[in-house]
Automatic annotation (TrEMBL):
The keyword Thylakoid does not apply. This is Rhomboid family intramembrane serine protease. It is a multi-pass membrane protein. It holds the Pfam family Rhomboid. It comes from Breznakiella homolactica. GO terms for molecular function: serine-type endopeptidase activity. One of its GO terms (biological process) is proteolysis. GO terms for cellular component: membrane. The chain crosses the membrane at residues 89-108, 138-155, 167-185.
Length: 188
């Protein structure tokens, strides 16, 4: 028996995120802040190359191990199933679009910085509810997941914390759109 690198997109994403955190906590203490965090609207500069890079890369950076583990426990659970159903390149595309949408909206709407993969987590959660989707139907699992996960985020958005419920909601919206407009490849 051998170990198989069964989900290249998801596993590479997880290892890269762990590597960034290790480097940030050891030899490059400003790495996450400088290259993996989208500045908020008061500090985002459209003329800054670094700010535009961070619009894509913020989903790789994490504040600490708890932050990374809570995001990647979901990504490593759901991601391989999605990668098998949608393909590696499609999943990379979906992660990148979710990163850009959440990053740009945060940069232009909120004064706080954005860091982490939770928007990607919510994209995957909502997308996963479409794995058995047929055109002309709305899966009941999608409705329940939408109500439970995004309803909770809407409720939590009224509390004072350092969590971007907005990124969760936008990520879930991205996953919903991907599920409706990019159905999984069927394997018979």
């Amino acid at each position: 028996m051998r170990i198989k690198y069964n989900s290249p997109t998801v596993l590479t994403y997880a290892f890269l995120s762990a590597l960034v955190l290790i480097l940030s906590q050891t030899v490059l203490p400003s790495l996450t802040r400088d290259w993996f965090m989208v500045p908020g609207k008061n500090t985002f500069s459209p003329s800054s190359f670094r700010n535009w890079v961070c619009v894509f890369t913020h989903v790789v950076g994490h504040a600490n191990w708890n932050h990374l583990i809570s995001n990647f426990s979901f990504i490593l659970l759901i991601g391989p199933i999605l990668e098998e159903n949608y393909g590696s390149l499609s999943l990379i595309f979906m992660i990148a679009v979710t990163a850009v949408v959440t990053g740009l909206l945060n940069a232009f709407l909120f004064p706080t910085a954005l860091l982490g993969a939770s928007g990607v987590v919510f994209m995957m959660i909502l997308l996963a509810s479409f794995t058995n989707f047929n055109h002309g139907e709305i899966p009941l699992t999608f409705i329940l997941v939408l109500f439970l996960y995004l309803g909770r985020e809407l409720f939590n958005s009224f509390s004072s914390n350092n969590i971007s419920e907005f990124a969760h909601i936008v990520g879930g919206f991205c996953g919903s759109l991907f599920g409706f407009f990019r159905p999984a490849a069927r394997k018979y």
